[in-house]
Amino acid sequence: MRGEQARSVRCLVRQLPWVLMVVTGLVQAQPTAGCSSDQIRASFEDFSKTGKMPPALGRWLGDPKLQYIEPYQAFDNVWFVGVCWVSAYMIRTSEGVVLIDTVHEPHVDTWLANLRKVGVEPADVKYVLMTHGHFDHVGGAYKLKPLTGAKFVMTQRGWDEAARSSAASQNSPRPWQMMGPDMVAKDGDVIKVGDTSFTVLETPGHTFGTASYLYPVRDGANVHRAITVGGLGLNAIENSGQVESYIGSVERIEKLTVDPAAPITVHLTTHPFSNGQTEAAARNKQRQPGAPNALVDQAGFLKQLEGLRLGARDRLAQEKAAGR
Fold it and tell me: HEC states along 137-176?
């Protein structure tokens, strides 16, 4: 993995200090089957230190068989349909399906097959909400677009960033395709599909065009407010102003999370190893009647946000010291 893809992964890992493990000895050649969050984080640790993609890790990231994870039902109306290292979600509403993010090649066929496994055909999809213009989150859009009448949604800056990134990749060993702009979203927009409303938050920092999405998730008689934070890392940093925007976005999400009128208690993350989501979902398989859903974890989300903010403040100091 080189170029845009390697930079995207490297920057992601460098800005996830709150989840990186301290390990002794050499990192294993690649994560084992099962998508262990701890082992994935440990495998990325060496990459984050050296800036060089270990060949085995690069092969693992691009191997559909090793990246495969069975789709799972996170909530009554939400399914995880992504791959081991990068998320994609399917949300059912009373008037069709909404998707969040699209994974990337060579995993797009897996994603489309996962949708069919959970009973979704392209014609069922009404909206595809995309978090930002990095290849790993929007790389599958071009393949779904001809199959569906859905609206594909991103901020204007997100569309622009995706177009530039795709164009730049054409001269790299791993080019990727991006569809043309469709629906442009802006901060505060509410996309209503049947009985479900999705609120758009512009949360610049990871990229200037990053968006996060708020939506309800249902668990029996309980309804929780969930968020998919559009970007966890500080990619493609241009200057300290971008880091300040990132910090502002994190602090805004923190305030929303503890809003007594509508607290956020669920974070369905864009990268499942970032908060141990894969393991939490596995624990839910052993859940007894009446027991809480392991994915409802406001305290864990607040801790994650605190780590994001502290890491960004360190980065801000570095950018200012460098005169950027």
Answer: HHCCHHHHHHHCCCEEEEEHHHHHHHHHHHHHHCCCCCCC
Residues (pLDDT < 50) of the chain are 1-32
Would you say the pTM of this structure is higher than 0.70?
Answer: yes
CA 105 to each of CA 6, 13, 46: distance values in angstroms, whole numbers, following the listed order: 14, 20, 24
Q: Would you say 212 and 131 are in contact if contact means Cβ atoms under 8 Å apart?
A: yes
Ramachandran angles phi, psi of 167, nearest 5°:
-60, -45
| Mean of all residue pLDDT scores within the chain | 88
CA 275 to chain centre: 11
CB-CB contact of 40 with 273 (8 Å): yes
Cβ burial of 312 (10 Å; 0-12, 13-18, 19+) is: buried
Neighbours of 222 (CB within 10 A): 13
How many whole angstroms separate alpha carbon 137 and alpha carbon 311?
Answer: 23
The residue with tokens 């809480």 is 292
Dihedral sign from CA coordinates of 282, 36, 66, 141 = positive
Alpha-carbon dihedral angle through residues 200, 246, 276, 134, given to the nearest 10 degrees: 70
- 79-131 tens-digit pLDDT: 999 999 999 999 999 999 999 999 999 999 999 999 999 999 999 999 999 99
